[in-house]
Structures are given as structure tokens and as C-alpha cells.
Amino acid sequence: MAIKGVSLSVAEGELVSLIGANGSGKSTLLQAVCGLLPGWEGELAFKNDSLKGLHPPAIVQKGISLVPEGRLIFPPLSVLDNLKLGAYTRYRKKQHIEIAQDLEMVMTLFPVLKERTRQAAGTLSGGEQQMLAIGRALMAKPSLLLLDEPSMGLAPLLVDKILKTLVQLRENGITILLVEQNAQAALKIADRGYVLETGRVVLQGNSEDLLADDEVKRAYLGKDYGDFYDGRG
Amino acid sequence: MTQELLQYLFSGITNGAIYAVIAVGFSMLYSSTELINFAHGEFVMLGAMGLVTLWAGFGLPLPLAFFLTVFGVACVGFLFERTAIRTVRKPDHIVLIIITVGASIFLRGMGMLIWGKDAHSVPAFSDHPPVDLAGAKLLPQSIWIVLIALFCALMLHLFFRKTLTGKAMEATAINKKAAWLTGIPSEKMILLAFFFSTGMGAVAGIIIAPITMCSYDMGTMLGLKGFCAAMLGGLGSLWGSILGGLLLGIMESFGVGLFSSSLKDAIAFLLLLLILYVRPGGIIMAKDAKRF
């Protein structure tokens, strides 16, 4: 297991960022929460319920949705079908009216998707695909939204847009756990942050504190020792 | 000469429609599980034998016998997935494919025990006289076969295009993990794919029953032909499989008519080799086309 002795909590309505380099175990943690690691030994609690041993569909029904790394949309299916499939478990519960409302909500959140409902999802640009992936996850009406590297491979302008959307979603009452390599951007919008390194939490705290922390600056914000020793003689 | 050619065409389309239905079964399972079910031919046999028993044997009305047979065979497919495929601890493709080969031997053996080694036959679905078309004779059973095959294809097409379950099945076929994370119970979708695929096999067996001798070992060759048809048209694509089936049937029939009847089975495999050399993805590649 890539992770040992990590304890992490997200309070309701919070936006928490989990940052760390490649191989630090961020994605493993998310996979465990989503039920992709059946042999997971740690505790997983959500709203006073244990998530242990549950399959991903059951976890989605509990209100946790993942926007997976690499988006994993269904390229040959239309944008609309992708979104509808996001609400699969809710269609089975016959919540058609609520689903239609949420579809409208996603379309207002990402107007570009509305223009392309009939288009195959594979023909969208990278940023649009990321929006679609987030929209699909939202269609399950999650109370906790997990995002695995949503900024990966996107132009800075799009990264900004996606992160702004996350802030907006938090204001709408969705709790968010954001996993990012893009530490600066992720910490800027977050309430709190955790820094993961080789499977352990090395730092945690308010995001302003983390942003100001020398260790974080050195390791994750792309500033090298030179910046720190300048002027210290 | 024209009427001879027309006659070859009719018989080619008849056989082709059957190959097409079998190929669709292969394709459907492949697109959801990436598994080639080499026991598929045996489900065709079960369909034919089921009709022999229920219609000719028990004297049930044809539509009821048809429905019960398809449903029964699909249930066998369901059990097959549950007991032989799902329970495999390390589901490598090669292991699963060998399991399907084993299942094919098992089902053939069971078929022999239940129905004996003798060949059975059933009458055509309706006893209309053959239709005369420009000097060639079109058998009413051929019309039944083509109509039923088209109907099945259309139903599947609508199922995959219009229903949420169909789209969820397609999503599972595209990316099982993504579908799972989205909340789609992918195991159920795979089970459903087995159910439909073997049900299609049964349909093929039922419609072919009146024009051939039905025996416990009829499935092997039909299964291989269906596989060739699916490869020819494009494994994993619905309309590709149907195109492949019809093409194979027509070429076979012309090969037999114009050259020699000993060529019949060779043509399918020559075509298979050719397509594997020239266009391994089939005429309509699943990657280009939507899968279903």
C-alpha cells in the first residue's frame, strides 16, 4: 500500500485540498474512498456511516462522487448521454423531475456543454471534457465531490475557470476534496490543505498558512532554495 | 442464368441473416466484456433443440415456444456467466476464453444426453407456398428468417440508442471502471450482455431449425461461421456484424453455386484469413463506428 498512517477529515461545506508530488499517494487515497481498493484496511467514515467494503455504485448512492484522473468520460456517447449516465442511480429511483433540474443546473454552470449536447463527448476539447466530467459527477447529486487532478493538461486560463467553478459549487453547499499537483492554485481556493509525501501527511493546516510555509514553497510551489537564501548572507 | 443467380442470392441472404444473428451475439458480448464466447454456437444449438422440444414435441403454439426457448436459453447464458465466468479468481482473457471452450464441450455433451445423437427436424413456421420471383423460388421460411433477423437488429439498435440501460451497457463496454465510478453497476450490465447475447444465439437456432437438421453438434460450425461473420463486419459493432453475416452468406452461396459445394465451409475461413490480413478491425471497425 502506498499509504500508511494517514488521517484526513473534511467537514461539511469545506473545500479541502490535498497536494503532493507524483507517487505521494493522493490518488490512492481517493480510490480508497470511492471503493476501488477492496483490500483497503483503513477506516472510512462518511456522515457517521462506514464506507468499508462498499462498491463504487453504492458509494455514489451515498452521495460521494469522483471526478477521476484523466476524466474518463465516455467518448463515443453524446454529451447529454454522458450527463444522464451520471444520474444513473437516481433514474433507478425515479427522480426524473429532480434530474431534469440538475441537468439544467449543470448546463448553466457550463454553458459550453449546452451548445454541444448532441455532440460525441470525444470531440470536445480537453477543458470541455473536464467540465463534462465534473458535470457528470454532479448529476449524481453528491454531497461530497472528489476531484483527482482536474487541472491536468489544461491551459492556465481553463484551470482558473474550473477552480472558480469549484468555489461556486462550495457556495452551493457541496463539500469538496480536491487532489492537485498544482499546489498554488489548489491552496488559493481551499479552506484547508494537507501535504502528502511518500504516503504520509507531512503538513496540514489553513491554506493561507500552507501557502506561506517555506517547506511548501520549496517543494511544491516551484521556488528553489536560492529564493530563500537570497539576502540571508 | 439470371434466375439461378437470383436463387443463389436468396439462399445466400437466408443463410447470411442467420450468420448475422449469431455474429451479433458474438459482437455484443465482445463489446461489453472483450470476451469471445466460443460456446456461442452451443447456445444456437440449444435454441434449435429447445424449439424442437417445445413446438414439435410438446405442441405449444409457435410464438409461445419461440419466447420460452429464447428466455430459457438466455437463462442458461445467465447461469453460465454466474457459475463459470464470474467465479474465476484471476479473470485473464485467455483463461476466460478457454473456459468458454470448455463450456462449449460441456453443453454439446449435455445436448447429446438430452436429445440423443439423432437429428431432429421441425416444419417451417408457416405453410405458404414458395413465392415465385423472376423464376427463382423464395421460401416462406427465408422471409421469416430475414424478417426476424431484421426485427432483432432493430430492437437492439433501439435498445442501445434510446434506453438508459442500453446506454449504461454501452458505457460499461467503453470503460468499465469509469462506468462503475459513475454509479453504473457494471457486473449487472455484463450479466445482461450475456443474457442478450445467448438469447440472440437462441433466436438464430430457432429460425434455422426448419431449414436444417437439428442435432447436438450443429452448433460448432454455426458458431464458427458467426464468428467469421463478426470478424468480417467488425467485431463489436452491431451493423458491422449484420453486414458481415449477410456478406458471408451471399459469398458462400455463390461459391457453392458457381464453383463447387465442397467449397462451402472453406469460403468462410478464407474470408476470415483475408480480412485478418487486409483489415483486422473488420469492414466497420468498432473504433470508427459507435459500438452499438
Which secondary structure elements does this structure contain, and how are they paired or packed?
The complex is a heterodimer of chains A (233) and B (292).
Chain A: E1 15-20, H1 26-34, E2 45-46, E3 49-50, H2 56-62, E4 64-67, H3 79-86, H4 88-92, H5 96-109, H6 111-115, H7 126-138, E5 144-148, H8 156-171, E6 175-180, H9 183-189, E7 192-197, E8 200-206, H10 207-212, H11 214-220, H12 225-229
Parallel strand pairs in A: 1-6, 1-7, 4-5, 5-6
Antiparallel strand pairs in A: 2-3, 7-8
Helix pairs in contact in A: 3-7
Chain B: H1 2-33, H2 40-57, H3 62-85, H4 93-115, E1 131-133, E2 136-138, H5 140-162, H6 164-174, H7 176-182, H8 186-208, H9 219-233, H10 238-258, H11 264-278
Class derived from helix and strand content of chain B: mainly alpha
Strand order of the largest sheet of chain A: 4-5-6-1-7-8
- Run of helices and strands of chain A: EHEEHEHHHHHEHEHEEHHH
Distance between the termini of chain A: 44 Å
Tell me the fraction of residues in β-strands of chain A, as a range: 15-25%
Q: Reading side by side through the largest sheet of chain B, how are the strands ordered?
A: 1-2
CATH superfamily of the largest domain in chain A: P-loop containing nucleotide triphosphate hydrolases
| Largest sheet properties of chain A | 6 strands, mixed
Largest interface: A-B, 26 and 18 residues
Q: Tell me the number of structural domains of chain A.
A: 2
Question: If you had to describe this structure to a student in words, what would you say it looks like?
Answer:
The complex is a heterodimer of chains A (233) and B (292). Chain A folds into 2 domains: 153 residues, P-loop containing nucleotide triphosphate hydrolases (Rossmann fold), CATH 3.40.50.300; 68 residues, no CATH class. Chain A contains 12 helices and 8 strands. In chain A, strands 4-5-6-1-7-8 form a 6-stranded mixed beta sheet, sandwiched between helices. In chain A, strands 2-3 form a two-stranded antiparallel ribbon. In chain A, strand 2 and strand 3 form a beta hairpin. The longest helix of chain A is centred in the last third of the chain and has 16 residues. With 292 residues, chain B is mainly alpha-helical. Chain B has one domain: ABC transporter involved in vitamin B12 uptake, BtuC. In chain B, a hairpin with a 2-residue loop joins strand 1 and strand 2. Chains A and B meet through helix 2, helix 3 and helix 4 of A and helix 6 and helix 7 of B.
